Amino acid sequence: MSSSKLARMAHVCVLALAALSWGAKTVTYDFNVTWVTANPDGLLERKVVGINGQWPLPVIEVDKGDRLVVNVHNGLGDRGCSIHFHGMFQNGTNEMDGPSMVTQCPILPGSSMTYNFTVNQNGTYWYHCHTDYCYPDGYRQALIVHDSDAYFAHDYDEEFTITVSDWYHELVEDLSTEFMSLYNPTGAEPIPSSFLLNDTINTSIPVKPNSTYLFRLINHGAFVGQYFYIEDHSFEIVEIDGVYTEPTEADMLYISVAQRYAILLKTKDTIDKNYAIVTVADSTLLDKIPSDLQLNNTNWLEYNKNAPHPQAIVNVSDSTDLHPYDDLSLVPYDHMPLLPEPDLEINVTVYMKNLMTGYNYAFLNNITYTAPKVPTLYTVMSSGDLADNPEIYGDFTHSVVLNHNDVVQLVLNNGDTGSHPFHLHGHQFQVIDRSPPYGPGFYDYLNGDPVPYDPNNHTAFPRTPARRDTVVLPPHGYFVIRFVADNPGVWVFHCHIDWHLSSGLAMLMIEAPRQIQERVTIPQEHYDVCRAAGVAFEGNAAANTKDFLDLSGQRSQPGWIPDGFTVHGIVALAFSVLSAICGILSIVIYGMADVKNKQDSVVPLDNPNEVVVEQNATGQTKT
Ligand SMILES: *[C@@H]1O[C@H](CO)[C@@H](O)[C@H](O)[C@H]1NC(C)=O
Ligand SMILES: *[C@@H]1O[C@H](CO)[C@@H](O)[C@H](O)[C@H]1NC(C)=O
Ligand SMILES: *[C@@H]1O[C@H](CO)[C@@H](O)[C@H](O)[C@H]1NC(C)=O
Ligand SMILES: *[C@@H]1O[C@H](CO)[C@@H](O)[C@H](O)[C@H]1NC(C)=O
Ligand SMILES: *[C@@H]1O[C@H](CO)[C@@H](O)[C@H](O)[C@H]1NC(C)=O
Ligand SMILES: *[C@@H]1O[C@H](CO)[C@@H](O)[C@H](O)[C@H]1NC(C)=O
Ligand SMILES: *[C@@H]1O[C@H](CO)[C@@H](O)[C@H](O)[C@H]1NC(C)=O
Ligand SMILES: *[C@@H]1O[C@H](CO)[C@@H](O)[C@H](O)[C@H]1NC(C)=O
Ligand SMILES: *[C@@H]1O[C@H](CO)[C@@H](O)[C@H](O)[C@H]1NC(C)=O
Ligand SMILES: *[C@@H]1O[C@H](CO)[C@@H](O)[C@H](O)[C@H]1NC(C)=O
Ligand SMILES: *[C@@H]1O[C@H](CO)[C@@H](O)[C@H](O)[C@H]1NC(C)=O
Ligand SMILES: *[C@@H]1O[C@H](CO)[C@@H](O)[C@H](O)[C@H]1NC(C)=O
Ligand SMILES: [Cu+2]
């Protein structure tokens, strides 16, 4: 722990506030966000987003109950930014949550913003940019909340934070133009260049024999989930996503992007060997696997520097043959019982479809999230008595108004063949049902029809369901979550694959809008950030301040492909024009050849009527 303590002292100005008798303090970080260069996989040096001239970024560390202040200056010069503190409840401080156009304006180059909130929770979190397309360029790192009262606080000798992630050699701005383009009508996601452990590769974690370690594992990647195990070792899971669990023996985990696990690992009593720490990328997410992409990666639990460091042999033919611990079987340490029958039920289904632009968009029901002209929290704050009316938030933000303290049940069905790790801001939710996410049944689901949640035919809900803030929606399957709307705020519910967030896989919970108006104060500085960015901070989704029910001029999703047109037709038309101009037919063929098993997730190319059927989905399970 001593090295991380040192790093912390170098970065942090700790103001002990004696006035607070229980010892809570204010921890302040000054972040100057600028471009730097780094070469984490040894294959390519590239531009990455650094903080105070450094990358990897500083780990934020606080104690439970502390006030965290982060002064952010955007020194990038060429793009906006923000910070979301992933998993933080921001109870009473919704304005500090970070997503651009939801709770704030983007911080443009030259602008600064102070995030300031108390941390009344425990465990393993992270922070990342939450302005369109920015965290895969390296703008993400761990946020640890230490808790000397944790039930396992005295059961380990030392703790380590270990991140895993995918890594791209190209800048997000270049990847995103390829992703949302006519050349990519199936929405194939950019394939990572490599997979990192703690922002590097081939690394060793030195351990002592006969000792117990707390490993805090975080997938802060942009896209790919990873299996994690240590050869010849098992461990105890003690926390998921900030929720302490009953200590649970396991030997393998599946960590989707944005998920965290804390594990206790007891080391062997001999030092004659080093053991592979193995990560295996979930290849089912990848549309193609380049021959030089290393899916299985070895790092080492190093008992003895001078002993060999053997490469792991991953002897399965497919990553779905691996058997990670099922996170739904974990029992929260506090044994919080199953929440009662819901006051409100929200039913939504994931689809991938093409719109008139020819690009592929991600939908929840028939809406692909399209940012409003005014950050939605600011619409709440400026709308007075109309704040309860969902209409003022526009037709394309997919806003649902929740009553204060209602029990909310959200059913998410998957009409798509990809798995999607969904995250809800401001809450930990109970996961009460889910179709099988991995294992032998995987391909039955993938190759069959979507199986929606059936309220009349489900397994008994657990009595003390697992709680977390990010859960995987399996291909063609479903999950069901419950939470209490006890945290007034505007909270995004979205897929944490950054490509899918950018193509619209998000909706908003407008939780207890009247209570938001009473509790939240927007600092003047946040409005100044809007002024500098030329973004309106009053009015409805269309920035209309006179008549909040008049949404003319709102930002809208592109039009539906009309009857009689096929995506093929539109793409072909656009391409014939393009190719006549530029002679790039080869790229067309390449792009169209990339369809693979994504095929059934797009609008069927030969049956335009299907477009109409899916377009009418209003929220209920697809039948
Ligand atoms: C941020 O860093 C850049 C590059 O080192 C420097 O030019 C700039 O003055 C810094 N800004 C602040 C506010 O510290
Ligand atoms: C990592 O290890 C692999 C396999 O031994 C080796 O080919 C590669 O050069 C190493 N890369 C770095 C940056 O150490
Ligand atoms: C943070 O917020 C607290 C409570 O509102 C306030 O007292 C303090 O001055 C703020 N600190 C900064 C640096 O803005
Ligand atoms: C934090 O941990 C303590 C025990 O150490 C527990 O009593 C408390 O409920 C936890 N807080 C949250 C918000 O999880
Ligand atoms: C992983 O990286 C973080 C941030 O650089 C560092 O604090 C931590 O100690 C590293 N973990 C290990 C096991 O080296
Ligand atoms: C580990 O502990 C056992 C007994 O507690 C002892 O016999 C053994 O020598 C220790 N091993 C090492 C490498 O220190
Ligand atoms: C994979 O290797 C492990 C350890 O060597 C062995 O126990 C297991 O049976 C092997 N699995 C297969 C499918 O060969
Ligand atoms: C990596 O793992 C995959 C299973 O995901 C397997 O098919 C492949 O052979 C493995 N490659 C190596 C080099 O171990
Ligand atoms: C959600 O769907 C279920 C049936 O699947 C239905 O009973 C319920 O009324 C629906 N709820 C909403 C809010 O549409
Ligand atoms: C979505 O469906 C609802 C109900 O059928 C309809 O009122 C709404 O206009 C549709 N939205 C879009 C963007 O097509
Ligand atoms: C209920 O669900 C099970 C498993 O998902 C399925 O095998 C069975 O056919 C379903 N029964 C009915 C009546 O739909
Ligand atoms: C937020 O704070 C209120 C008390 O002000 C509490 O009742 C509620 O449970 C808290 N919600 C969360 C998610 O922390
Ligand atoms: Cu997704």
What does this structure look like?
The radius of gyration is 24 Å and the shape is globular. A hairpin with a 2-residue loop joins β15 (235-240) and β16. It has a six-stranded mixed sheet, with no helix packed on it. The chain has a six-stranded mixed sheet with strand order 22-21-24-29-26-27, with no helix packed on it. It is an alpha+beta fold and 623 residues long. Helix content is 13%, strand content 30%. Residues 1-23 form the signal peptide.
Which SSEs are present, and which pair or pack?
Layout: H1 2-11, E1 13-15, E2 26-38, E3 46-51, E4 60-63, E5 67-74, E6 84-86, E7 112-118, E8 123-128, E9 140-146, E10 158-167, H2 172-179, E11 194-197, E12 204-206, E13 212-219, E14 226-230, E15 235-240, E16 243-250, E17 253-255, E18 260-266, E19 275-281, E20 296-302, E21 344-354, E22 360-364, H3 376-382, E23 399-402, E24 407-414, E25 420-424, E26 429-434, H4 442-447, E27 467-468, E28 470-473, E29 478-484, E30 489-495, H5 498-502, E31 506-511, H6 513-519, H7 524-533, H8 567-582, H9 585-592, H10 609-615
Parallel strand pairs: 2-5, 4-9, 10-13, 12-20, 21-24, 23-31
Antiparallel strand pairs: 1-2, 2-3, 5-7, 6-8, 8-9, 10-11, 13-18, 14-17, 14-19, 15-16, 15-18, 19-20, 21-22, 24-29, 25-28, 25-30, 26-27, 26-29, 30-31
The structure holds 2-acetamido-2-deoxy-beta-D-glucopyranose (NAG) (12 copies) and copper (II) ion (CU).
Protein name: Iron transport multicopper oxidase FET3
GO biological process, one term: cellular response to iron ion starvation
Domain Plastocyanin-like: 32-148, 158-305, 369-514
